[in-house]
Each structure stands twice: as C-alpha cells, then as structure tokens.
Amino acid sequence: MKHKHTARPKLYISKCIETCACRYDGQKVNSDFVIKLMKFADVVTECTETAIGLGTPRKPVRIVSDDAKMHGLHLVQPETGADFTEKMNAWANSYLENLGEVDGFVLKSKSPSSGFKDVKIYGKNGMMLTKKGAGFFGGKVPEYYPGIPVEDEARLLNSAIRDHFLKSIFAIAAFREAEKGGKISGLLKYHSGNKLLFMSYNQVLMRKMGRLLSAHGNKKYTELCAEYKAHLLNILSSMPKVSNTVNTMMHAFGYFKTGISAAEKTFFLQILEKYQKGKIIPALPLNILKLFAVRFNEEYLLSQTFFEPYPEELAGGD
Fold first, then answer.
1. In what order do the strands lie in the sheet with 62-65?
2. pLDDT, tens digit (0-9, with 9 covering 90-100), for 205-256
3. Predicted pLDDT at 245
4. Could you tell me where the DSSP H helices lie in the chain?
5. What is the pLDDT of residue 224?
6. How far is CA 182 from CA 152, 179, 195, 232, 315, in A?
7. 170 vs 176: CA distance, rounded Å
8. In angstroms, how far is CA 73 from the centroid of its own chain?
C-alpha cells in the first residue's frame, strides 16, 4: 500500500536553515530533516535580520524588556546600542501581509527575530528575565496565520512533534488542493480518505466535519470551505493522544474480526497494549493493520491516509 501525496505543502523556512550561511556568525544551521522535507514541499525562505539591512556576519541582537513585567520589548544590538524594533516590526508586518498561502512554518529556534517560543528576553541590566518569549517575526506568524502549523528546527528533532507537524502540513495541503477543485464531491472524497486520521485526533470533531459537508444545504462553496478549514485547523491544533490513536486502530481492527485467527487477534492486541504503554512505536501495530488490510483487500482502509499521512521517506528516527 502506498499513497500518492500529490499535494506539496507550501512552507516558509527560515533562510539560515540549510539554505544560506546568513546567521549572525556567518554560518548556516544544519538539519537533515529540513533537507529531506524541502524535496517534498514548495519552499519560500527569508532571513529576517538581513532583510532589514543587517550584514553577515554581524553583531548579535537580543530582545530587551523595559521592565521585569515584559513591558516594552525592543530588538537591540547590545554591542552597538542600535535599536531595530521599529524596522523589524514594519518589515515583518509587510512581509507577512504579502506572503500569500502557506501550509506551515519552520522557524529558527530561539532566534530573537524568527523564534516562535523559547526565546531569551533580557532586562536593561543585561540579566536574562525568561526563556519563554517569541521573536519579533516569529511572534507575528500566528497573528497572520492563525491555526497554521509552526515549528522550529530544534523541536522537529522530537519524533512525536515531527510526526504531528508532517501530518498537519500534508493534510492542510491536500485540503487546499481539494478546495481548488471547486466541487463538494472533492471535499467529500478528501474527508473520506482522512477519516481515520481525523478520528485519531478527535472523533467528535471528525464527525462534525463530515456532517458539515454532507448537510451543506444552500451554503456557498467558499463559505463551506472556510468553515471546514476552520474545523480542520482546530482538529490539528494539538497532538493526538495515544488513547485516541489506540481507539482508531481498534476501529480499523474491527474490519478483520471474522477473517483472522484467534492467535493473530491475541498477537495484535498484545502489540497494541505495548504501544499504549509506551514500550513500542506506533508503526508496529500500524504495520500489522496494513498487512491485514492488504491480505483481505479492504479498499476503504487501504485508501486511508492514517496509514501513510505523509511520504514514507520523511518518516524515520531522530
């Protein structure tokens, strides 16, 4: 079984990640995962700091707060005393307003300009106040692209975070393609093929999305798509719980109740229990289900993105 992922996610990736040696120290950031990801996506890149006129290499900038309560944040270059707050805000707003459709963002981790979390914020005295802020550009991304997946290259080293990000961007890209088809039948086909994937996130929302399409009434197509996409971004807004994934696997396993032997059933349930307890990765019970689906030619299951939500070349260890 192999799904054809014809929809290529549109991604913004910070330029210093594997694309250009434009960091403050004149280096680029290495990421094997981002190299692989760029083969399957349409990518736009930018360096937020060189975009406002800073050179490479350059003296580092940092976020400085007016007081301990985080009032009045400034993007400053401590060594020169230069304040780039106004310039960065103006550029970031203009850039994001004109960026166009994007299915996901991969930002430079901890960057005072691009970071979207875990960015250090300092006091005027040079002492660090917190590590939990957002960079000037990274913090604006959710404002202009609410619900669109945002990660940084460091967090994507975590297999669970990476898996969720990939599921999200490919599901959003595939919806974008279905929407462009201009037909409700295309949306219904999209939802049908993603039913188990959505079930593994939130069964209640999955059913709500299905009812929206099947009982669309006299809604305009654009209105229907906007409403469905809002639900899609909502269902993908948090990582799926193990319990939901287990329930989805049990739902799929129900298709084979009469075909498999008692020993096969026992074996699968033991494997599923090990996954539920965190002893093995989800790919193991998932591959057993794939094997059963192929064996019994269960076309509905074979069509489900749940079994291959993104190109298999992007799967792998940390």
1. 82-83, 73-77, 62-65, 119-122, 128-133
2. 999 999 999 988 888 999 999 999 999 999 999 999 999 999 999 999 999 9
3. 97
4. 32-38, 85-98, 141-144, 159-180, 184-193, 195-201, 203-214, 221-235, 242-253, 262-276, 283-295, 299-302
5. 96
6. 34, 6, 21, 18, 32
7. 10
8. 28
Q: pTM higher than 0.85 for the full model? A: yes
The tokens describing 93, both together, are 């707003």
Q: How many residues does the chain have?
A: 318
Distance CA 117, CA 110 (A): 7
In whole angstroms, give the CA distance from residue 210 to residue 202.
Answer: 13
CA-CA distance, 5 to 309, in Å (whole number)? 8
50 contact partners, CB below 8 Å, separation of at least 6: 15, 22, 56
Report how far Cα 269 is from the mean position of its chain's Cα atoms. Answer: 30
Query: Would the pLDDT of 2 be above 60?
Result: no
d(CA 136, CA 134): 7
What residues contact residue 19 under an 8 Å CB cut-off, 6+ apart? 13, 28, 45
- Give the torsion sign (CA, 309, 314, 24, 20): negative
List the alpha helices (DSSP H) in 83-158: 85-98, 141-144
- Contacts of residue 145, defined as CB under 8 A and 6 or more positions apart, other chains included, come to 96, 102, 105
Question: Would you state the structure tokens that stand for residue 305, as one six-digit string?
Answer: 């993105």
Find where tokens 């037909």 sit: 183
pLDDT single digits (tens) 33-60: 999 999 999 999 999 999 999 999 999 9
pLDDT score for 161: 97
